[in-house]
Structure formats: structure tokens, C-alpha cells
């Protein structure tokens, strides 16, 4: 029997036991060791545990290969984003109160995030148009102002957790400001988005309901008062049938800010502050800040696994593995970005290479990579420009955020003082 035949065996996903959890992988000291072990046993597509509710293990196929991820992301006729196609939904297997149930609802919400084909196109076009209409210079200036205010609150010197004091508020408030929210409302949305990322099923549902109500009221006010922010551009788009569709579409970048921007800013600052060779390349001009951000996406991806599973429409073979109709597939972004098949042994060969999958690819690719990069680049630059920061890592290493989706240090214990020049690293 060939290895390919073994991998394409008839195991049912629900019959497999002893599965590695996604959270175990993302919070490990080295996730790539987990991916290597899974590849050695299963190939590029491996069974994993998304979540455990009481005694019920909720399984999925983790897609790890770069080529396999690209195939799934580009093939919505085979692999749907609509969770109505998930067997755990249509066979009523999913326990009540799960976190994954909020990301993969049986009744898809009216946003391109949850739909395919014609409906996806109808709902995606307004977001693409609104992002295209944004004044990026204004976004940069708003983000710079936000960073300066947060840095002012940090004081001329001090110590503490850089994630809580800087990375989270800057990333999130920059995005909510782009949507036209004031700082007070942005802070409330930030608290609710944190509950969505880290809470249990009941907390997630309540936080999502509060966010929806806040965004819906904001849409009505922006339509009445006008503006040039992202919400104002969405509010009058012809494709939307009602305000609920606008609100749901606006919530996507809010959630993305909570999940992705904080992780990307944190990971980048962590690497610059902890890796002297990387810091020397940045301060010496051999690596631009954009190059640094891309190196983090390639080699230390802040998105371990996409929180948007796909669902097989029919039985299909993928990576030598039989995927059954109704199975869930999780896109292994960090595994794909670390796939040895797409790397060389020379780091300089990959400078400014942006073929990583942190933005996804295909019809459901992230709509706002330019906006996210602009905010992240500004946030990192402003801190390093205005503060001399020294990382005070414990001897046993930093704890990693407990999440099945994102990877970044849970805390960055640092000391800081106002910079006297342009030096950035302590």
C-alpha cells in the first residue's frame, strides 16, 4: 500500500481521537514543531481539535501546506465559507454556547464573510468601494495622533505591559477612528471585541450583540450627519438591502482589529525588542519597517489559524486525505507561511516577498491589507521613534496568548523612557 493510499484512507473525522488542539499549537513555545509532528504523521492535512465543550470534541481538518491552503481559499465551489454547509450545524451536533458557533453560525449573517459566489460579491463590493474611497493620508495622520496620545499617557518613563498599555489600544482605536467612532465608544467596542476573542460562547454572543447595536446606531448617525470615514462610505451604498447588512459588514473590520492588528503590532515589537540581529538590520537601514512587518508575517505569523473555517460541499481529496462532505477545514496560516516548500536557505532571497498567506487569497482574501499595514507600520514607528524601550523578559520565556486563532505574547514586560534621538531598541 502506498503512502498516498494510506493518507487517502476512509477515516471519519469524528471517529479520530487524541487530537491536538489549535490553542495548544498557537500558545506553544514553537508552533512549527507541532506542525512538523502533524506533517510527519498525517501529511499536509491533519485532524485537530477546534474546541472542546464539556465532553464533546469539535474536530476539523487543519490545512498546513502552502499549496493546499491556496487551493482551498481559491475554490469556493468546493469549500464554502457558509457554515450552513457544516455537518455539525445541519446534523445539529454542535453543543450550545460554543465559541466556534459564533464564528460559524448555522444561519449566516449578512456579510461577505459568511457567503459565497453571487451573495458574497454583492456584500463585498461596498466594503471594497469604501476602502478605496478612504483618504490614506488622513488615516495615517489619525493613527499618528492616536499613537502620540497613547504614548503621552505612558508618561516620560515607566514600566509595565506594552501589550495592554500600547499595542491593544493603538491597534484597535486606530481602526475604530477610521470607522468614525469617538474614543469613548471605541474603548467600549474594544472591551467587547476582547470578549469575542477570549470569552466563552455566552460571553461572545452578548458582546457581539452589544457591538451590533452600537454599530447600527452609528450608521444611522453617520447617514444623518455625513462624513468621510469608512462607515459614512458604507452607509449609502446601493448594494445593501437594509441597515443590518451595513452593520454586519462594518463589524468585520472591528473584529479584525481586535484579532489581527494587536497581534501583528505586538509580534513586530516583540521581535525588534528581543532579536538584536533584527534590530540592527532595522536601525542600520538594511531592512525597512515594511520588510520587518513582512518578515513577522512570514516567520512569526500573528495569525496562527484563520478564524474563518471552510466547509466541504462534497467528498473531495486534499493533500492525499479524504475530506468528507460537511467536514470543517481550518486554514493553517502559520503552517503555510512556514512551509519548507516555499522557502530558501537565504533570508535575503525573501526580503519584500509578500506571497505569504496572512491576508489569505482568492475571493475571500482580506479586503484591507493596505489599511492594516498603514496602521501597523505607523504604530510600530511611532513607539520606536518616541520611546527607548527595553524588554524585561523572564528567564523562562514569555507566556503566549491562549487562543486557537492568534499568536502573540500575552504580555510584553518593558521599561521605557522618552527617546533623545532616533535609536529604538534597548
From TrEMBL:
<dbReference type="InterPro" id="IPR002397">
    <property type="entry name" value="Cyt_P450_B"/>
</dbReference>
<keyword id="KW-0408">Iron</keyword>
<keyword id="KW-0503">Monooxygenase</keyword>
<keyword id="KW-0479">Metal-binding</keyword>
<dbReference type="InterPro" id="IPR036396">
    <property type="entry name" value="Cyt_P450_sf"/>
</dbReference>
<dbReference type="InterPro" id="IPR017972">
    <property type="entry name" value="Cyt_P450_CS"/>
</dbReference>
<keyword id="KW-0349">Heme</keyword>
<dbReference type="Pfam" id="PF00067">
    <property type="entry name" value="p450"/>
</dbReference>
<dbReference type="InterPro" id="IPR001128">
    <property type="entry name" value="Cyt_P450"/>
</dbReference>
<comment type="similarity">
    <text>Belongs to the cytochrome P450 family.</text>
</comment>
<protein>
    <submittedName>
        <fullName>Cytochrome P450</fullName>
    </submittedName>
</protein>
<keyword id="KW-0560">Oxidoreductase</keyword>
